[in-house]
Amino acid sequence: MRSLPFALVVLLTAAGCASASTEGGGETGTGGTGPITFATGRDTTAYLQPLLDRWNQAHPAEKVTLLELPEASDEQRAQMVANLQAKSARYDVLGLDVVWTAEFAENGWIIPLERGLFPLDRFLPPVVETAVYKNKLWAVPYTSNAGLLYYRTDLVKKPPRTWSELRDQARRITKKHNIGGYAGQFLAYEGLTVNFSEALQSAGGQIVSQDGTEVALDPAKAEIALDFLLRGLREGWIPKESLSYKEEESRLAFQEGRLAFARNWPHAYGPAKEKLGGKLGVTRLPGLDGPGSSTLGGANLAISAYSRHQHTAQEFIRYFTSLENERRVLTDGSFPPVWTELYDDPALIKRFPYLPVLKESILAANPRPVSANYNQLSLVIASSVAKALGNPSSESADDVAASMKSELEEIIRTQ
Hints:
Helices cover 45% and strands 13% of the residues. By secondary structure, it is of the alpha/beta class. Strand 4 and strand 5 (136-137) form a beta hairpin. Helix 8 crosses helix 16 and helix 9 (247-255) runs parallel beside helix 10. InterPro entries: SBP. This is Extracellular solute-binding protein. It holds the Pfam family SBP_bac_1.
């Protein structure tokens, strides 16, 4: 066998290295085509597979396989982190909770994306911000979410706009009808962090600075937010059993007639409407002095830094977040889409009457703390609030707020 000229050997070696580098991910951008895996939380509505089938029919050499992770977001994150820390190429496209962007970007687990490849100007602005970290786009918004106040129209003549109005109505209904007045998600998990964040925002406060480098928690405003919940438990219009509620438990309690008001995500609308019919009402969360502020939820799609087929992953995300598919996200999956124009579509509003309220809620919502250590921050918040709610008569709201701030500052200081 004849030897290749030295110059040709160098050229082929360089080309091979470039190809391997591109397919391996990292800092080289989106290169590599072929089959991919889409890792996301369990599909409880069976709407995903038809969307994947359409892609697979059009891309037989770049088929996507759905890898369903646990339904709970904490467990999803744990499995993704384990995979990415091992630098495994098993996952290509990642369905990330909107609060994970900073952590995954900071650790180099996902790659930055080119803004011009996606119609971000047609998405809801607050939703786009959840995919940005340090002025770079790290993911593409896929679904959004904002908390809503569900209420019984047969028991409530005019929905409350303030906490005071909610308290008065809930107390009256509890006494007259012997049912719970109000509940959210008060178990010590991410849902409690969300509920406290919404109360704090609705009192004019925040947890950390916009860039995530400082704790901005005002103990006085945190005390007001905590007292709203503690007072409800002390006075009985927030039932004690709600301390064990996650989303599903609070949804069932409301639609089964055990609550007059409930805070939940939009996914609760369909089952509640089916059960309550014309007795169901939806409005924005109340606040201290007027309509409150929800916490942004939802999911973004990112590309693993260790994917060997990043170009295919990118094109799949472009397909999956298209206007046509975002419409199906709503109509088939009942998840809030990210395209602004879908919230103004008369046909969709007729089918999903809560869309105008949801749009208002999303536009007025705030993200959870932007931090690479978000998971630690959330654990501190949830455990602190849970401790207070578990002992509403003995725990001082100002002491809990001061202690929470101290713990949060320690996390920020060491990040």
